[in-house]
């Protein structure tokens, strides 16, 4: 197994980072030799997600190691690493050492005789590590976003007046704008400013970042403005919960705790969005009817 990148590896990395081949970007489990491995070479265990393997082998810098690639059955490498060293020793005879958290520190770790200093043990979630998640978030959001937009558009444009294509398009554009604003607030504020935003739970961080949506410009009516502001906050809060599975800040119990509190709030704001948006349809229609009667009365 080579320790240098090829054009094919680069294309695969881009496709995986965007999300196009994310679920299929893996290699066959097995034992791989990196460079000229021998019986005395170190053994580094990893999962079979190719992006993970590439990051690992490119950092070895020509080192001679054995690379057992395991199939974690969909569990990410971070969670799959929680193994019992005693059980491995009992079952295979190998002694387990827990190395540094970053692949870039592996050459130094191996040269120092499998010794880690404090910096190698520190888990960070830097700006670049957060920013690299943005493309895949947007890609994975495309299908559910389209379905949600269609559903919200159809259910909240029910009114007493006949269907008007121009009115439907105008309201659809307003809905799309609020949705994009909610996405932007999550991508920009949550992804890039995560450590500095208040609140511990991600859904709350997303809701706070979505408060910027209250600065939306004048809309057709106050209920419409409130509906779109609440919708943008809901979108931002929901997307922010994606970080529960991609940061070192949460645990399984922490995720469950957050979901029990975040989902009811998101359901409530979604219901309010439906209510205000549907109400704005009736209020606008009623206003137009009153205006017509007034004009007709003065004309006669």
Task: Describe what you observe in this structure.
With 300 residues, this protein is mainly α. The chain is 59% helix and 5% strand. The chain has helices at 7-18, 50-59, 77-80, 85-92, 106-111, 118-121, 127-131, 134-156, 165-193, 202-209, 222-240, 252-299, and strands at residues 30-34, 42-43, 46-47, 65-70. Strands 1, 2, 3 and 4 form a four-stranded mixed beta sheet that branches. α2 links the parallel β3 (46-47) and β4. α9 (165-193) packs across α11, α10 (202-209) runs antiparallel to α11 and α11 runs antiparallel to α12 (252-299). The protein starts with 6 loop residues before the first helix and ends with a helix. The relative contact order is 0.08.
Please describe the structure with a list of short key phrases separated by commas or semicolons.
single chain; 300 residues; mainly alpha; 4-stranded mixed β-sheet; 12 helices; elongated; disordered C terminus
Kindly summarize this structure in a few lines.
With 300 residues, this protein is mainly alpha-helical.
Radius of gyration: 26 Å
Task: Give the low-confidence spans.
Answer: 285-300
| SSE arrangement, N to C | HEEEHEHHHHHHHHHH
Alpha-beta classification: mainly alpha
Q: What percentage of the residues does DSSP assign to strands (E)?
A: 5-15%
Coarse shape:
elongated
Ends distance: 90 Å
Major sheet details: 4 strands, mixed
Mean pLDDT: 78
């Amino acid at each position: 197994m080579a320790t240098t990148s090829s054009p094919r590896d680069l294309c695969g990395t881009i496709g995986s980072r965007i999300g196009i081949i994310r679920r299929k970007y893996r290699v066959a489990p097995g034992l791989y030799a990196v460079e000229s491995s021998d019986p005395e070479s170190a053994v580094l265990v990893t999962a079979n997600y190719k992006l993970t393997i590439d990051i690992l082998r490119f950092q070895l810098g020509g080192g001679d190691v054995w690379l057992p690639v395991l199939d974690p059955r969909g569990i990410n490498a971070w969670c799959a690493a929680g193994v019992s060293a005693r059980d491995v020793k009992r079952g295979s005879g190998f002694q387990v050492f827990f190395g540094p958290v970053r692949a870039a520190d592996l050459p130094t770790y191996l040269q120092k005789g499998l010794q880690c200093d404090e910096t190698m043990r520190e888990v960070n979630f830097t700006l670049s590590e957060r920013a690299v998640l943005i493309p895949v978030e947007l890609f994975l959001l495309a299908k559910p976003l389209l379905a949600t937009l269609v559903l919200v558009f159809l259910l909240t444009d029910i009114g007493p007046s006949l269907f008007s294509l121009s009115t439907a398009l105008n309201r659809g554009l307003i809905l799309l704008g609020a949705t994009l604003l909610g996405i932007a607030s999550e991508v920009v504020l949550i992804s890039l400013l995560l450590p500095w935003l208040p609140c511990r739970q991600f859904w709350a961080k997303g809701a706070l970042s979505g408060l910027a949506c209250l600065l939306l410009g004048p809309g057709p009516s106050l209920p419409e403005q409130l509906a779109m502001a609440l919708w943008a906050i809901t979108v931002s809060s929901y997307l922010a919960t994606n970080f529960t599975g991609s940061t070192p800040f949460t645990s399984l119990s922490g995720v469950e705790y957050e979901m029990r509190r975040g989902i009811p709030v998101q359901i409530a704001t979604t219901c309010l969005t439906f209510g205000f948006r549907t109400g704005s349809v009736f209020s606008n229609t009623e206003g137009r009817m009153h205006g017509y009667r007034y004009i007709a009365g003065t004309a006669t």
